[in-house]
Amino acid sequence: MALYLKSFFFFFAISLLSMQYLADAATCSDCFVHSRAAYYPNSNEQGSDSACGYGSFGATINGGDVSAASDLYRNGLGCGACYQVRCTNSNYCSDKGVNVVITDQGSSDRTDFILSRGAFGRMAQTKDAEASLLALGIVDIEYRRVSCSYPNKNLTIKIDENSNYPHYLAFAIWFQQGKKDIVAVQLCETQNFVCKLLDRTYGAVWTTISPPSGPLTLRMLFSDEDGDESWVVPVNNIPQDWKAGVTYDTGVQLN
Question: Which family does it belong to (predicted)?
Fold first, then answer.
């Protein structure tokens, strides 16, 4: 009987440790995930943009260290997210790798990332190693999500060029710091605070037909990796006579 009890408690303890290990692995936000990455061969040291709706900004943000993503695009929710990406070939690759921003959707041969040429090369240890890395074209990598950082920048609204005042309003949100996702956006009249929920048309582009009138306040719902949500209301309003193609500083930034 004593031997049975010892065996029972031994296997019970092992089971608890295994469950804890699996739980930790499932919730490890700082752990690296193994995958593959390619690069845009004709990107002229920078990436491209289409599926996120950033326009030319999508090739220059973060110093041009940008990437298209496949599953991490998440139907547009992943636009603007930042990842540390490092290749795993010890002959060529640095331990630090490169931090990139998702600005587009795309995939190659079983890849999660298609980096700009410059970002791909910055995973290398040296200039000579960079040439060898670029020659490979597709490499094994590991990646993890990291906080985006834009010093001296606030969340910024870029009114889409296809907007038509006052009938149709579309915009993208730039310079989103941290590791949270924007899951909903409301547009509110500043006088009576009547709000309208906007549609995510594609990527990072939010739209509405017949937007509210007058100066407008945004309400943005952010969600973190644990599913905790919080609303952020900018300090600055979108002016009553907003114009297509213009950017507006919200006056706020995420910590």
Answer: Belongs to the expansin family.
Residues whose CB is less than 8 angstroms from the CB of residue 83 and which lie 6 or more positions away in sequence, other chains included:
67, 72, 99, 100, 102, 113, 143, 144, 145, 146
Query: Does residue 248 contact residue 163 with C-beta atoms inside 8 Å?
Result: no
Quick check: helix, strand or coil at residue 14?
helix
Q: What is the mean pLDDT of residues 125-139?
A: 96
DSSP per-residue string spanning 110-162: S-SEEE-HHHHHTTBSSHHHHHHHHHH-SEEEEEEEE-B--TT---EEEE-TT
Q: Where are the alpha helices (DSSP H) in the chain?
A: 2-26, 57-60, 117-121, 127-136
Confidence check: pLDDT of 47 > 70: no
Q: What is the pTM of this model?
A: 0.87
pLDDT value for 27:
56
Coil, strand or helix at 217: strand
Alpha carbon 66 to its chain centroid, in Å, reads 10
pLDDT score, position 63: 93
Query: Residue 69: which pLDDT band, with cuts at 50, 70 and 90?
Result: very high
Three-class SS state of 244: coil
Cα–Cα distance measured from residue 161 to residue 231, given in angstroms and rounded to the nearest whole number:
27
In sequence order, which residues have a C-beta less than 8 Å from that of residue 137 and are 6 or more positions away? 38, 39, 41
* DSSP class of 164: B
Would you say 134 and 39 are in contact if contact means Cβ atoms under 8 Å apart?
yes
Q: How far apart are CA 131 and CA 120, in angstroms?
A: 10
Kindly list the strands in the beta sheet with 229-232, ordered across the sheet, starting from the edge strand earlier in the chain. Answer: 195-197, 181-189, 216-223, 229-232
